[in-house]
Specification:
Strand order of the largest sheet: 2-3-1-4-5-6
Bound molecules: guanosine-5'-diphosphate, magnesium ion
Radius of gyration: 15 Å
Protein name: Ras-related protein RABA4d
GO molecular function, one term: GTPase activity
Strand content: 15-25%
Distance between the termini: 24 Å
Number of helices: 6
GO cellular component, one term: endosome
Largest sheet: 6 strands, mixed
Oligomer: single chain
Subcellular location: Endomembrane system
Membrane topology: Lipid-anchor
Length: about 180
């Protein structure tokens, strides 16, 4: 930190969406605090967390919003999406249903958010390879068709978490700067 956060040049709001229990809160905990919990209730009530980072030598503050158990269909309010320039759309690679619902989440997102919003599809829990129910190929193909980014992550093992957020934030930076 130090002088690092004194002249923030950009603030980017990014929302986490996707079915309940796919690991949204733990991805955020890992990214913002390098923390992980097996108890999913640990972060309930937290609206958003911030992390300041450097992109292209500029100080960028990422404001990452997390749902607090409003993941039922259409329960996420438009206030949640307001002003968002990025979205991480998360499914669980061991839960086929959470991937099947990505279509609905994308539809809801496109109904609420700005047309230029940067979307990264995230297949989380890549550490549970033996229980895999969604292939990388299926997800990649879907992402290409929808013109969104894609990455698999593990919040538990800290695999690709930074990379996924960085992918979203650097693309947002690229199109806004
Ligand atoms: P949310 O409802 O989408 O916010 O999901 P949570 O972040 O609360 O996570 C739901 C459950 O999945 C919790 O028990 C987490 O510990 C677990 N979990 C989250 N990410 C991972 C991961 O990458 N790997 C594994 N094995 N479990 C995870
Ligand atoms: Mg949560």
């Amino acid at each position: 930190q130090g002088g690092f956060n004194q002249n923030i040049e950009y603030i980017f709001k990014v929302v986490l969406i996707g079915d309940s229990a796919v690991g949204k809160s733990q991805l955020l905990a890992r990214f913002a605090r390098n923390d992980f919990s097996f108890d999913s209730k640990a972060t309930i009530g937290v609206e958003f967390q911030t992390k300041t980072l450097l992109i292209d030598h500029k100080t960028v503050k990422a404001q990452i919003w997390d749902t607090a158990g409003q993941e039922r269909y259409r329960a996420v309010t438009s206030a949640y999406y307001r002003g968002a320039v990025g979205a991480l759309l998360v499914y669980d690679i061991t839960k086929r249903q959470s991937f099947d619902h990505v279509v609905q989440w994308l539809e809801e997102l496109r109904g609420h958010a700005d047309g230029s919003i940067v979307v990264v599809l995230i297949g989380n829990k890549s550490d549970l390879e033996t229980n895999r129910a969604v292939t990388v190929e299926d997800a990649k193909e879907f992402a290409e068709r929808e013109n969104i980014f894609f990455m698999e992550t593990s919040a538990l093992e800290s695999t690709n978490v930074e990379a996924a957020f960085f992918m979203a934030l650097s693309e947002i930076y690229r199109i806004t700067s």
